[in-house]
Amino acid sequence: MTEVWELSAAELGRMIARKETSARDVVDVHLSRIEALDDSVNAFLTLTPDLARATADDVDQRIAAGEQLGPLAGVPLALKDILCVDGVRTTAGSKILEGYVPPYDSTVVRKLRAAGVPIVGKANLDEFAMGSSTENSAYGPSRNPWDLARVPGGSSGGSAAAVSAGFAPLGIGTDTGGSIRQPASLCGVVGVKPTYGLVSRYGLLAFASSLDQVGPFARTVEDAALLLEAIAGHDRMDATSIPEEVPPYVKGLESGVKGLRIGVVSDWVEGEGVQPGVTERVRAAIESLSSLGAEIGEISLPSFRYALSAYYLIAPAECSSNLARYDGVRWGLRAPEAKDVVEMNVRSRTAGFGDEVKRRIMLGTYALSAGYYDAYYGKAQQVRTLVIRDFEKAYERFDVLLGPTSPTTAFKIGEKADDPLAMYLNDVFTIPSNLAGAAAISLPCGLAEDGLPVGLQLLGPPMSEGLLFKVAYAYEQARGPVDAPPLWGRS
Amino acid sequence: MSTYEAVIGLEVHVELATHSKMFCDSPTTFGAEPNTQTCPVCLGEPGSLPVPNRRAIEYLMLIGLALDCRIAPHSLFHRKNYFYPDMPKNYQISQYDLPLCVEGYLDVEVDGAERRIGITRAHMEEDTGKSLHVGTTGRIAEAKYSLIDYNRAGIPLVEVVSEPDIRSALEAQRYLTELRAILQTLGVSDVRMEEGSMRCDANVSLRAPGTEAFGTKVEIKNLNSIRSVSRALTYEIDRQQKALDGGDGIVQETRHFDENTGKTHSLRSKEEAFDYRYFPEPDLVPIEAGDDWIAEVRALMPELPRARRARIASEHDLTPEQAAFVAASPSSVQYFEALLASGTAARDAAVWMAGELSRALNEAGESIENARVSAADLAALIAAVKEGTVTLSSAKKAFQDAYTAGKTPLQIVDERGLHQVSDDGAIATIVDEVLSANEAEVARFRAGEEKVFKFLVGQVMKATKGQASPQVVDRVLRARLARVRVQEWPSSRLRRSEPKGSRSRRSRVGSWVSSRCRSSDPSSPSSSDRSRANTSSRIRTWAAPTWRAPG
Ligand SMILES: [Zn+2]
After folding, report:
1. Which residue of chain B is at minimal alpha-carbon distance from A374?
2. Would you call A102 an interface residue with chain B, using a CB distance cutoff of 8 Å?
């Protein structure tokens, strides 16, 4: 018999709307699964059972009163602990925000509330979203439901692990250089990095403002599309928000890929450091799409080899400024007994930030310094322009680009923790989309030779989410159901 | 001692009078309880984002257009990074190398000659909060703890940067006065320096006349009035001159002007200068000022002070100096027009505004919108002068006293008995007394010494404390002098008007003014219950009974 927590968001939403189950029951089932298993996964930093139950009860009452609610009303969600919820502690995985309770809702949370989506908890992450494994969380790493000795990826590892583990069918993450797609890939779930400006950043604790984007996690393409519909849209509180209507993504899902031109990024599929099992699963996915009628070609994107370097100048530069406000003056940690304000700033920041955050603040401060700006930040912005141009040229030939999401499957906790460069290479295939402000999606394409999930990445130009969902859905249908992680056997 | 040429550039920070802040909806009300005019955005709450205030950008554009700037079609906000507790984000959002307004100028008149001061740029930035250091001295070093008020954090500021085209403290003063008049006319700022809505930094250096190269410059920070700028520059130019003459040279540094001592002193030298790590603000998109938007804003441009001065001067036939005062600000024009509407002739209005009103405002340190004597009340006073019921000198005195006392000038006239004496009989009494007290002079006049007449007029005016109508004195005196010659004084008619009992002439003259202050007519309205509008007509009716000699 299928358990409630195994069902898709779309299915749960339909059952709740038809009163075949109640939102309250659905929430309670998920909360008890979390209670039973999260000690071993550590997906959540804060549980919000009261908030989730209140939302569920409200949904049930409105349905009982005959109201027509959205398709996700009553469907539980794990929220990355870097988005503000009014009155709920927000840590960003950092000690520096100790005790911080935001006085306002992020726009994404406001929209989730409006959609009747119960938030069951705030999910673990690398400190301020800086990392690819959640090992940089000040509150301990999350573990991969496929193998608890391995990382779930990062930085949105907690949300990905929660969705993978059956703690919630939906999750929200943020993707600055791959922080949704890489953990989605490593945990075997669907993750979407929307076009920059499609989802409001208001209430998202900024890491790198020009790259950060909020996006969905789910176990099916349809669920991810439904969740993106719920959170996307213009927001007057975010000046970089795109002032356009959000098209209905779910409506076009089934229109197929016949005649669509798909460009395989050859350097990625056969590239150096790419695990053979990853190449193999991606090749199989290409075959599958080809047999569905897509036209497959190959493409090389020369500027992309500079993308990683450019990213590691732009993101730290912006983070050095964004994180300046955590100074012990107004929120979170304040070092006691400092003799003046400068000492208070320095000691609070020294005690509050972890090593990776400090590393990036220093990198960024240096890159923005007078005399170095042109050589570093300026050059990095030029690379960004080149990446955008290479993408534009590619999209003259192809509708969608394709490659692996991550060069490898999930690695062991501690394996790369002392080698920042090896860790940074995790994001080498995901970073270009962030630099270009473009859309991309990662979805499971089977297991590698080590029995761990592999992610297939589909990339499109800005505002191509509808197209990406369509291709992903077609592939997902052809692929059939994926294996479940071993954790599903436990309850 | 050599003479040098001063090279001065001014950076003026103006707080815009928008209803909401630069990047959020919080109100900009001045003087509210600490931290009540705030929201997550201006508190720099984690996750909050700035959204630009369109009105503020349009105000900046308007300022740029008024200063003949080029409006950049593409301009940016940057982040200026530095740690400071009253700055919630530890960076300030400001325009940097791509400001909205560039390459303008402002023409000012200095000693009758036109000077063109270049405007490098006008750009937008946000204000910071305010620290309050709690302790005995209010200084940060001795403070027990500090409190921060973020009400001002995020209030829109415009910075207008001049070219180093200013050559003296006087030119700086003229430049600031004209700039303030423009800002007032545009209605984009309250430009109240006492509330900090206009602040100025001055860069000063000296060089030998005729040389092109700049000397070492000193920046004087945070000058908060036009007078302070003028004083600080005067002091600093002198200080630099002495330093150069003494062979000491100038240190490039930031200096502070002490209002109390009138001196500048060193704050920090260039070596300690900050690296602000400017970079484009990624939370904001560029300002794209298309032709349509610029045209839309340009259509809102009111008549600027320069054009207004020229128009007022020609329409009302005023001298440039008079026009300059009348047209100094929209409020002064309003005052002027209100005077005209109350029947005052343009010339008289201008003379009074540039003279007595200007003096009173300067002394009180107030601007014309807060003038304590209304245009209608001043018009009534001017009318009384015209009608001859008050002399000009009494009127001026009444005006200044009214200003200080917070009354209308005609109330002062009434209270102090400053009405002009044009009644023949009353004046004749005084004339008679003067003549009898100066018999020697009368004799000299009779002997043909015409200049003695002037002396006698002076004596009469003195006895009446200047309130007698000069024309009437002249006429009565001539008539009496003629009679004196035929021994026909005093007249019986006048004697009847004299009070009973014997009083010395001196004491009678001395009580002359005070006795006519106390009205003998119980039906006279008291000064306090008069309506301001009808003052001039009432004054005539109530003056009459006191002064008409009983017939
Ligand atoms: Zn605010």
Report:
1. B279
2. yes
CA of A70 vs chain B CAs: smallest distance (Å): 27
Chain B from 17 to 56: CB within 8 A of any A CB: 40, 43-52
Look at chain A and report how many structural domains it folds into. 1
User: Concatenated DSSP letters for B219-259?
Assistant: EEEEE-SHHHHHHHHHHHHHHHHHHHHTT-----EEEEEET
What number is the ipTM of this complex? 0.96
> CB distance from A104 to chain B under 8 Å?
yes
Binding-face residues of B in 488-517 toward A, CB within 8 A: none
Distance from Cα B152 to the centre of ligand 1, integer Å: 9
CA of B36 to the centre of ligand 1 (A): 10
Q: Inspect the interface and report whether the beta carbons of B46 and A97 lie closer than 8 Å.
A: yes
Residue B86 near residue B148 (C-beta atoms within 8 A): yes
- SS3 of B345-370: CHHHHHHHHHHHHHHHHHHHCCCHHH
| Residue A46 covered by a domain | yes
Q: Cα-flanking dihedrals φ and ψ of residue B173, to 5°?
A: -65, -45
CA nearest to A309, candidates A401, A381, A372, A416: A381
Q: Is A179 a catalytic residue?
A: yes
CB B455 within 8 A of CB B441: yes
Interface contacts (A, B; CB < 8 Å): 97
User: How remote is the CA of residue A103 from the centroid of ligand 1, in Å?
Assistant: 13
Query: Is residue A10 one of the residues assigned to a domain?
Result: yes
Can you give the pTM of this predicted structure?
A: 0.84
CATH number for position A156? 3.90.1300.10
Tens-digit pLDDT profile for chain B (551 aa)?
568 999 999 999 999 999 999 999 999 988 899 999 999 999 999 999 999 999 999 999 999 999 999 999 999 999 999 999 889 999 999 999 999 999 999 999 888 889 999 999 999 999 999 988 887 676 666 777 889 999 999 999 999 999 999 999 999 999 999 999 899 899 999 887 666 788 999 999 999 888 889 999 999 998 988 889 999 999 999 999 999 988 888 988 899 999 899 999 988 765 556 799 999 999 999 999 999 999 999 999 999 999 988 998 899 988 888 888 888 888 888 899 999 999 999 999 999 998 889 888 888 878 888 888 889 999 998 988 888 788 888 888 888 888 888 888 888 888 877 776 666 777 888 888 888 888 888 888 888 888 888 888 888 888 877 777 777 788 888 888 876 444 434 443 443 333 444 443 333 333 333 333 333 333 333 333 333 333 332 222 222 223 333 33
Helices of type H across A369-440: 379-397, 420-424, 431-436
Query: For A264, phi and psi rounded to 5 degrees?
Result: -85, 125
Between the CA of B123 and the centroid of ligand 1 the distance, in Å, is: 21
Say if residues B269 and B253 touch (Cβ distance below 8 Å). Answer: yes
- Closest by alpha carbon to A180, among A262, A274, A78? A78
Measure the CA–CA gap between A390 and B523, rounded to whole angstroms.
98
Q: Min CA distance, A158 vs chain B (Å)? A: 20
Please give the DSSP secondary-structure letter assigned to residue B145: E
Which of A82, A105, A237, A350 to probe the B interface (max B CBs under 10 A)? Answer: A237
| Any domain includes A42 | yes
CA of A111 to the centre of ligand 1 (A): 22
Domain containing residue A189: 4-255+441-489
In A, minimum Cα distance to B44 occurs at A325
Residues of A in contact with B46 (CB under 8 A): 84, 90, 92, 97, 100, 102, 205, 325-326, 331
Chain A CA closest to residue B82? A324
A266 classed as catalytic: no
Which residue in the set A104, A206, A327 is minimally distant from B83, CB to CB? A327
- In a domain, residue A309? The reply is no
